């Protein structure tokens, strides 16, 4: 459960950053690689 929460936090942060960047897809993939 803790890992899931961390993943959600990472995705939320990247979602906010992604709004300022056009590489949202790449950021999302990077987050998934970081979490797993």
Account of the protein in words:
- The protein has 36 residues and is an all-alpha fold.
- The chain has one domain.
- Helices cover 81% and strands 0% of the residues.
- It has 2 helices and no strands.
- It has helices spanning 2-18, 24-35.
- Helix 1 packs antiparallel against helix 2 (24-35).
- The radius of gyration is 10 Å and the shape is flat.
- The model has no long low-confidence stretch (mean pLDDT 75).
- Residues 1-19 form the signal peptide.
- Keywords: Signal.
Q: How many helical stretches?
A: 2
Order of helices and strands: HH
By secondary-structure content and strand pairing, the structural class works out as mainly alpha
- Radius of gyration from the alpha-carbon trace, in angstroms: 10 Å
State the end-to-end distance.
14 Å
Tell me what portion of residues adopts beta-strand conformation: under 5%
The level of helicity is over 70%
Low-confidence stretches: none
* Assembly state (oligomeric): single chain
Please, how many domains?
A: 1
Biggest β-sheet: count, sense, barrel? Answer: none
Number of strands: 0
Keywords: Signal
Signal peptide: 1-19
């Amino acid at each position: 459960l803790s890992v899931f929460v961390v993943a959600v936090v990472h995705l939320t942060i990247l979602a906010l950053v992604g709004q300022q960047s056009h590489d949202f897809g790449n950021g999302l993939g990077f987050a998934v690689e970081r979490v797993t």
